[in-house]
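Forum: Protein Structure Q&A
Topic: Joint prediction for protein chains with partners

I've read a bunch of threads here and the consensus seems to be that you should model interacting components together rather than docking separate models afterwards. I'd like to see that in practice. Below is the full input, 392 residues plus whatever partners are listed. Could one of the regulars post the assembled result?
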Amino acid sequence: MVKFDFEKFQYIKLEEFNLGAVKERFLEERKMAGWYDLDTSCLEEIKTTAKYIRNNCDVFVVCGIGGSYLGAKAIIDALAPYYGTAKPEIVFAGYNLSSDYMADLLDYIKDKNVMVNVISKSGTTLEPAIAFDFLLDFMENKYGEEASNRIFATTDEKTGTLLELANEKGFKKFVVPDNIGGRFSVLTPVGLLPIAVAGYSIDSLFVGANNAKSEEKYYYYTQLRHELYNMNKNVESFDVYEPKLASFAEWLKQLFGESQGKDGKGILPVSTVNTRDLHSLGQYYQDGIDMLFSTVLYADPNRDLSVQKYDCELSNINRMAMESVCEAHYKGHVPTSVIELDRINEENLGYLIFFFEMTAMLGSYLLDINYYDQPGVNGYKDILHAKIKKKD
Ligand code: PA5
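Posted by a regular:
Agreed with the consensus. Here's the joint model:
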């Protein structure tokens, strides 16, 4: 169950909110909103493949960047226990250009039983393309012809270099639907295959997402963010009190940053992991420039411990810390919304995925910007590509 408190720590109360017109515009356009349909037609094939992968490898390398890995990482990190290594272990590659990272990864998987999922909608993104070249080389040296049965490609259905390579080598393919942009693709094979391989229920993600769709709580939150932005609150901090939600906050930063930060507009998404960051950024939030609002993601724990010294449960202290921060920040001009999960599970995470995707989309319409492109990302790409030359 997901609960919302949008009002207690706010300066504004929305008497009326009517985003009907915005929704109508979205429904008319629907150009890149395939994610809204919550299509489950790929689930059975993904579950069958995931079962095969789970039974046949120790390490599953997921190679992608941006929307092609953040969603899977968000869900897997949120659901995994803090310590210990699950089988198969899921490791991520292709989201940086660090040679130390790549070299250490290749050493780490050298003697392990490995399978790889390369994910790129365009097939041309530099970071995963370079990382996958290393991984393909590694897999072919280690497994010879059998390598092709151990590599899974998630990419465009019709075009792209990754599709061509997958066809040439005979990798099993999964499709990134044409009408779903990278950062909205977690509930497609992009996110679902790694999540299923990690052993989590992709069906339950859809149960939660469908609940969010029918409850429509995102209207109020969308309008609230927009009103706060109009009051010059230009920065939204996603604050979590369970460290395993840190990657979920990273996914949120990409979703909102790439969808809404354009044309000189948009709320800058940042995040904190509390209570850790109360002892660093907390100072600024309380006393720094007045430009912030906060959205807390608070989750009840799966396991509790008694704290003898205070004669109460540790979860109570964590909750009291969260409430105290809301109160203090409110006094320090940081209005806050609280979103509570009764536990971290697939259903609640699926709920949040759809809730925030709707918010990113509806909020972009309020800003009158195109939510599904990211022209700003090309800035560094153009300069970098001009500096590096491909060998023929
Ligand atoms: O949200 C997006 O569209 C981007 O962040 C992409 O996911 C990211 O750039 C990776 O692109 P691709 O999957 O084409 O390699």
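The longest helix spans residues 346-367.
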